[in-house]
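Lecture 7 notes: from sequence to structure.

We start with a single chain of 258 residues. Read the sequence below before looking at the structure.
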Amino acid sequence: MKYRLIVLLALLPYLGLADCTGDGFWVYPADGILREDGWIMIEGYAESRRMIDSINASYQLTLESEGHQVKMQVMAHYRGQYSLDQVLVKPMEKLKVNETYTLHIATSKGEKIRNLSHFNPRTDEYEPLQWTVEKSPVNRMPSWPQKPKWAKHEVNWYGCGPAVYTVFDLGYLNKGTWVKVELVELETQTKSEFYLRVNPRDGLLYIGHGMCSGAFNFKQKHGYKVRFGLLSYSGVAHDKRSRWITFSSPFDQVGSEF
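Now the structure, written as tokens:
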């Protein structure tokens, strides 16, 4: 049996105006550069979540260059609240600097999923999922430039539903820095976790979901608290997390269409 897996390298929360599709993957880093002991983040949307849930059980990931094959291990797996799942994987051994590696997925029977590729909107072509390896920095852990603070709520209504976010300013973190978000619904004490990326456009962190999918969902007339932890270049979550910040549902302050 032949498979074709199409992966979209994109900023998921900001795909808002088109109709929702039935599946899709997002893979990071999206700039084609990987650290020698770095990590890869894979997010699966809608029907594609089943594959995310089955990595290591039904599917095996490897990075392969000429003469070097490295198995990947799962470091974290989170199930989002709005049709989105995520898995953080990293190589089981160091990669070779300056080598180019391609990501491969095989079934538990060892059958590779063929034509593993992503669509590059800049070239309008499908391309292999590849990264060139750079040496890891000496300082592997980003640091907090300031205490995180709430910035604003955003609620926008589209054809398939709302895009709703509560937005935080984490200071002058590098745009694209990954942050571990722990969100607690106060009424039920339900806790959800997900890695989110600082928006490369404005440097802010958007917590919520777009029209089609996202990590977190909010209810009207509910309260929440959140705290943050930074993700190191080698895929380790920072033990020193931010303080808890409480806030009300974005729907309560911005309003609901219903």
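The longest strand covers residues 68-79. Keep this in mind for problem set 3.
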